[in-house]
Amino acid sequence: MFSDFLKRLTQPDPAPLPDEDARLALTALLVRVARSDESYDESERERIDRIVAARYGLSPFEAAKLRGEAEGLEGEAPDTVRFTRAIKDAVDYEHRIAVVEALWQVVLADGVREAEEDALLRLVANLLGINDRDSALARQRVEAKG
């Protein structure tokens, strides 16, 4: 179902993604991080829905639909390194730093910071071109919001 999309995303020198495709790719990345600790629970799904609803101005129904599509894409996406690098090449820096903040929201959604989630988030932030300092600041902003 997503093979054409993934082919476009992972080709050498991908074109910037249209807004709808960027939404799907970035939501799939949220899903991948949420699934990284082998526990993808309701609190994480609800957090992803709230993040994408707020970020993209979606209704709860539209947000859940986008998350459902992203879950399918995440399942078919290549390894995290190639998938994340493809997003980096196709999405501007401002959106990537916002994604790191959203990723921290997902990691912290269940109230537990698992080592697997921390490690994956460090890798993903780096692959997105976000340095450790900016990632830490993003985490601190999320923690401050509670």
UniProtKB/TrEMBL annotation:
Return the SUPFAM superfamilies for the record.
Answer: TerB-like (SSF158682)
One Pfam match, given by its short name, reads TerB
**Top-rank taxon:** Bacteria
CDD domains membership: terB_like_2
Annotated ranges, domain Co-chaperone DjlA N-terminal: 23-140
Q: Which InterPro entries match?
A: DjlA_N (IPR007791), TerB-like (IPR029024)
Protein name (Swiss-Prot/TrEMBL): Co-chaperone DjlA N-terminal domain-containing protein
